Amino acid sequence: MEYETDGESDASTCISEADFSFEDDGNMSDDDYPSYDSATCRERTYLVFESCLLHLFSHTCSNCNRPVQYTLNTIGSMLQVKVYCGFCEDEWTWNSQPYLNDCTPNGNVLIAFSIIFSRSFLSKVLRLFAIMNCACISEATFYSRQMKYLRQAVSNVWKEHQNSMLTVLQVEKKPLILGGDGRCDSPGFSTKNGSYTFLEIEHNVVLNIELVQSNEVSGSTNMEKECFMRGMKIFEVYDLPIKMLVTDRHKQLGKYIREDLPQIDHKFDVWHIAKSFRKKVKKLAKRKGCEEVGSWIKRMVNHLYWAAMSSEDGDPEMILEKWLSLRRHIHNKHHGHGTKYKKCAHGRLRKRRWLKYRYSLYPVGLEPVVD
């Protein structure tokens, strides 16, 4: 019995993802990509030991009843058994996995898919198979299968989903209420890739995702604005009016919407404001003499959310007065807040430790943070 391994199963091969970059020239149709039988991915798979598997093969030739020779070959995670009779020269081959139409073992593709869809780390999965002494694909195979199958599959599913949702919104003929936010692959000014996501708030579905690299614009700081401008074009193509847009307090984005999209009601996301406010209060609580402010951080953030959510029709004056009432509320003063919001809306409160008015806290401390 001979045992051979294919280079595809060598997990120690180190090849970067950049070596398998995917480029679509725009002229490729669905027929140009290899097809995939979805029925095979529904089959159950098993972990079989080599000694147990060889018991299924006869040790004598079915034609001449003479001893036969075995040759075992692994192609990634697939085992190929070749049986040969030296007397009558009869031979046949058995494969542990079905092939795709381009002679790719099905299990190799499923492993690559599973790593991506489970959000696992490639190195840890390969190490797991290596510890088990189980045949597996190599790092090079993972990236090549990702390039050949996965990217196109994900792209097709996303385009179908996006088109169906935008078509439904076209039929409804209602102005959209969108939420948008950008993200980068790393913090700071050294980021390379950026994305911007558009969420339809009433239906709670993602309508568009735009990607951009820093070398496409004049620096990483301009990526979010460029992503936003590209992403807005699809709503023009489908003729979908936008009533309201909720974003973070990105200065470039705010200026662009104010000057070029004045018909859109631009709002700031409370979560981003609360996140910034929480950081400032935590920083203040670390200062000498301001430690007692730390016990109020959670209540202050909750008050910020409540001020925005409890005001009818988003009345900015009411929201502002409710928010600034925090300056009196933390001192156990619940009346005389403003002209619209004159007193606190809560009922009888349980006993708690109120903050005392100290010059060390105000005005250089908490009041500038609240304002």
TrEMBL record:
Protein name: Mutator-like transposase domain-containing protein
Protein source organism: Amphimedon queenslandica
PANTHER family per UniProt: PROTEIN CBG10204, SI:CH211-108C17.2-RELATED-RELATED
Origin superkingdom: Eukaryota
Residue span, Mutator-like transposase domain: 219-344
InterPro entries membership: Mutator_transp_dom
